[in-house]
Amino acid sequence: QKEVEQNSGPLSVPEGAIASLNCTYSDRGSQSFFWYRQYSGKSPELIMFIYSNGDKEDGRFTAQLNKASQYVSLLIRDSQPSDSATYLCAVNSINTDKLIFGTGTRLQVFP
Amino acid sequence: DTEVTQTPKHLVMGMTNKKSLKCEQHMGHRAMYWYKQKAKKPPELMFVYSYEKLSINESVPSRFSPECPNSSLLNLHLHALQPEDSALYLCASSQDRHPSYEQYFGPGTRLTVT
User: Fold this and answer.
1) Which of A32, A101, A104 sits opposite B100 (nearest CB)?
2) Residue B65, Cβ neighbours under 10 Å: how many?
């Protein structure tokens, strides 16, 4: 079982829709959860982080964490073509002592 | 300001060359990282420096040699690389190594080994 799992996609959504990106993790000692956006040929850009169960909202982005289900998600409201990128879920644990990345989900927002 | 800078942006080197990648941050962060990223793969951790001391080496071949001259600077010295070492090399920093702190990435150096 991979430590951090994401569907590779592509996830295609129309402009203006909600994009829902999902991530599961295996280490129950995981403490910190991050979402990075990576445009093709560019470096990862941190867009959200969450530590506690529940929702955290920042503009059009909402991160959701459910530690009991070992599940973290990212919702993008009013999706724009400029949101088209690969979204990397990353998890940090006191057990592994490093950031573990999922393989990323490619999001395509079409006009 | 959450800026991490890296130079050069692109580097082409032969297998017998010696070159260095540089990374700088002025956020007062005390943890700095080197990652390697191949196409369509996630970043892969290479080294971690915490308070200017090497704290993690992910079994990286000795042809990669990291150096942390001070708390703001991180170098990666390259020598006798192989074509399979061609990748995007990313530097990142965080306030501390504790898992709660977020890591910020620099723009990366695109390395091609010929």
Assistant:
1) A32
2) 15
